[in-house]
């Protein structure tokens, strides 16, 4: 499995042609206590960089963008009852949705973990 990051602080874990998407630990820290997450429904087609989900915290509401294009196969049902799961484990159990990648070549424009760490250090 490989993990990639966007400059908007989303991550995507890729295994085969399936991607699991969430927001980074840095992003959840910037948002503060998360109180609501709206994830896309299965079957929704997403375009890289397009709106995919919404996350609301005590500080702000933010759009979550699709790091790659594809079709959603599953939204994380646990976030409806426990949006704070994103604060507790942003890069694990707090994932937002899974999708089937339609163009794996889009991954080449994303950052790996080392590049993302350097990017965050400049924030």
Automatic annotation (TrEMBL):
InterPro entries: 2-oxoA_DH_lipoyl-BS, Biotin_lipoyl, GCV_H, GCV_H/Fam206, GCV_H_sub, Single_hybrid_motif. Its cofactor is (R)-lipoate. One of its GO terms (cellular component) is cytosol. Residues 18-100 form the Lipoyl-binding domain. PROSITE patterns: BIOTINYL_LIPOYL, LIPOYL. The modification N6-lipoyllysine is found at residue 59. Binds 1 lipoyl cofactor covalently. SUPFAM superfamilies: Single hybrid motif. NCBIfam families: gcvH, PRK01202.1. PANTHER family: GLYCINE CLEAVAGE SYSTEM H PROTEIN, GLYCINE CLEAVAGE SYSTEM H PROTEIN-RELATED. This is Glycine cleavage system H protein. It comes from Sphingomonas panacis. The gene is gcvH.
């Amino acid at each position: 499995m490989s993990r990639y990051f966007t400059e908007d602080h989303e991550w995507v874990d890729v295994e085969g042609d399936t991607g699991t998407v969430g927001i980074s630990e840095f992003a959840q820290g910037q948002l503060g206590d998360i109180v609501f997450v709206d994830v896309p429904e299965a079957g929704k087609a997403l375009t890289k960089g397009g709106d995919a989900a919404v996350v609301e915290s005590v500080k702000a509401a933010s759009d979550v963008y699709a790091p790659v294009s594809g079709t959603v196969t599953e939204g994380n049902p646990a976030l409806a009852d426990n949006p704070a799961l994103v604060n507790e484990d942003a890069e694990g159990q707090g994932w937002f949705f899974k999708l089937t990648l339609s163009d794996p070549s889009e991954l080449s424009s994303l950052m790996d973990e080392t590049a993302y760490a350097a990017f965050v250090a400049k924030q």
